[in-house]
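Protocol step 4 of 6: structure prediction from sequence.
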Amino acid sequence: MSSNVTPSARPALSSGLFALAPNIRMGILSLLVATIVVLLAAAVSSEMAVFWAFGLAFGFVLQRSRFCFASAFRDIFLLRHGRSMRGVLVGLAVATVGFSVLMSRQVPNPSLGILPPSANVLPIGWHLVAGGLLFGAGMVVAGGCVSGSIYRMGEGYVASWVSFGGLMVGLAAAAYTWNWWWNFSIADGPRIWLPTYLGHAGALIVTLLGLLAIYLLVLWWESRGGLTLPEMPFAGSDDDTFSAKLGNSLRRFFVHGWPITLGGATLGFLNLLMFLNSHPWGFTGEVSRWVIGFTNVLGVGPGELQGAASLPGCALEVADSGILHHMLFLVWGMVFGSFIAALFAGEFKIRLPRQKTRYFQAVGGGVFMGYGAGLAMGCTIGAFFSAIPSLAANGWFFALFLAIGAWAGTQIIQRIE
């Protein structure tokens, strides 16, 4: 009898050999390395250990669900399917409910004009217009946003590492021009927190209704001739034994791709846990700290960044806190978490772009993303995925111009390719 399972796939699918398959052995080894890092980090600071664990969790979920904001926006315009966007919306809804409860305890009477500490309530202005447009176009041209680039870096995509380098260059450029943007737009930009005007319940209801309306709009858009991408069927053992059931459960978690809605919901919940611990999920603020620190070492740093230290979210940071920082562990934990997930799933492989133009797209798109994130005080994580749940108007404002930029990016890649 013929079999649809190739010989190379048998170790990963056989419940008896599951723990002995090469990709599983490498995954277990990487987990041991991650555990050692946790213990070493805890010896220095418990905060560093906690953020390393958060990074591992975020990276693992990103890779298993292939969660990418660039795909969510790009596929709406290019392919007319919204599977990824539905995952984003579910994640936003989960985080919004949790954030709302937490912030209602932090600021019981929002009418006093007090903003919740650490929530991503940021100034609105022309800097967000430019930041959203540049980041939206850049992530599509580069082939991935920050979250998508992170999990692809963990999978071995060289182009994503190049894009990350471009992101750092863009953040450096944003730092050098920050003071101009501060005086032009950021300093006088209003920080609008919806509960101040609608109350906690009103702001939560309006935000959830907005997300629901977009969800329905995505379904309508797909119905107009777009692609419908079904989830990949699970190929497991039909045996009714305990070992077979355990093997199937492990394969569903470590090997089989997660539904993106599950990934989005999990990321939203992790974002809430991170806010409960300290502050919402963010990324580019820490990377800017590296870049500015490097330019300072070279003696060509941007100098004082007016007002940046007073802003929450992923505002540019002056590197004055040393090399070991809790956010350093979060960022590299995300990369290593996606690497662990890729090893378990047998999806890690060093991949070079087939076309040389991909290098130019990756670095160019990365620069656009970096500059845009610098202006917007966050990428699709900090300025969008953590800002809308913060019940902040700037999250919606950024999302609007992010979508316009993504549409422009699809026009660019269609002409390039």
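Step 5 (inspection) to follow. Residues 1-19 have pLDDT under 50 and may be disordered.
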